[in-house]
Amino acid sequence: MAFLLEIITPERKAYEETVDAVTVPTTEGYIGVLAHHIPLFTLLTEGEIKIGAGSKEFFLAIGGGFMEITGSRVSILVTRAVHADELNEAEIKKAETSARDSIAKRAKGAELASAQAVLRRSVLEMKILRRRHHRLTV
Hints:
Elements: E1 3-8, E2 13-19, E3 21-26, E4 29-34, E5 40-44, E6 47-53, E7 56-62, E8 65-70, E9 73-78, E10 81-83, H1 89-104, H2 109-137
Parallel strand pairs: 1-9
Antiparallel strand pairs: 1-2, 3-4, 3-6, 5-8, 6-7, 7-10, 8-9
């Protein structure tokens, strides 16, 4: 059984396909969704989405947002969603190094919060990128 999954950011529709399963990060941990899931509205946290469609798996890095499950549709509204093939390893490493430098220099306030957010995002994006590289070499 399958259902329609749509992932939407303020800038674009990042994903829209019929899928068999999706796993999302919530404030209470990860939730797996299959067809005929009970209706649900939940808060999502920054993290990784895993999508299963047939024998294929896709991974996206997301910012926080919301998920609504209704009937045969799952709608995910998030601040950002990035596919593995949209990531640039050199840019991620540069952002991570810069964030670590800011934190090491004891940044404070908004500068520290920004550096921590960039570091979290960089670590997540590298995880997604590694999954893609692993899948291409296996």
